[in-house]
Amino acid sequence: MTRASLDKQPQEVAAMFDDVAERYDLTNDVLSLGQARLWRRAVARAVEARPGERVLDLAAGTATSSLPFVDAGAYTVPCDFSLGMLAAGKRRHPWLPLTAGDATRLPFRDGVFDAVTISFGLRNVQDTDAALAEMLRVTAPGGRVVICEFSHPTWAPFRTVYSEYLMRALPPVADRVSSSPDAYTYLAESIRAWPDQPALARRLQQAGWGRVAWRNLSGGIVALHRGTRPAA
Predict the structure, then answer these.
(1) Which of 43, 172, 180, 195 could form a disulfide with 19 if both were Cys (CB 3.0 to 4.6 A apart)?
(2) Are strands 54-58 and 113-119 parallel, antiparallel or unpaired?
(3) How far is residue 74's CA from residue 66's CA, in Å, rounded to a whole number?
(4) Interatomic CA distance for residues 16 and 4, integer angstroms
């Protein structure tokens, strides 16, 4: 897969992430100019995991994103559909219950999690609306969702510069630091094709989430969307 589309084939996307698994965290730090760590901290604050809570971390990759929830005392399930990512994560964090799963057909019972979160993975799911509905299904009434995803910069002149960076600068940099540079061409295109902040908020509401809101990070390069499952 070298061209982005919103009709993503799960097996192709999973294979792509299998190829980049070993150097994925390093590559992200380099390509984001160190911002990835700040974004992870923002997600941890938004999820606000508490001791004894159950947190589902979707598109968890190597489970780096799951560690803040574990440190907060929450029972955390890192879930991903890339077996290569999960294998790399298991080598690094053998005590975590890493689980293989498709975000559109989650292998969990209804209402079992207090919080569900997904960072930089929703745009790679074949059916966004099905994934949002599945997240709602596995979340307990009153529970919350936090979605961290690349979005659209709010300042128009910067949007142009950012778009040029994605398509011209990102692939050559990925060629030097990534184990699969072609995957980052796809990722750059998928970012440009992704809906903006209000559009994603509407889709969360249509899926049944309440109290939907978002906050821009890094000038809108990334947006942090939140919602709550209405009480029964």
Answers:
(1) 180
(2) parallel
(3) 10
(4) 12
- Which candidate, 121, 120, 95, places its Cα nearest to that of 106? 121
**CA gap 227, 205 in Å, rounded:** 8
Q: pTM of the predicted model, to two decimals?
A: 0.82
Q: How many Å from the N-terminal Cα to the C-terminal Cα in the chain?
A: 42
Cβ neighbors of 190 (< 8 A, separation 6 or more) are 4, 123, 124
| Sheet-wide strand order for 113-119 | 99-100, 75-80, 54-58, 113-119, 139-150, 222-228, 210-217
**Residue 26 near residue 93 (C-beta atoms within 8 A):** no
Q: Which residues contact 125 (CB under 8 A, 6 or more apart)?
A: 8, 103, 104, 131
- Is the Cβ–Cβ distance between 55 and 61 less than 8 Å? no
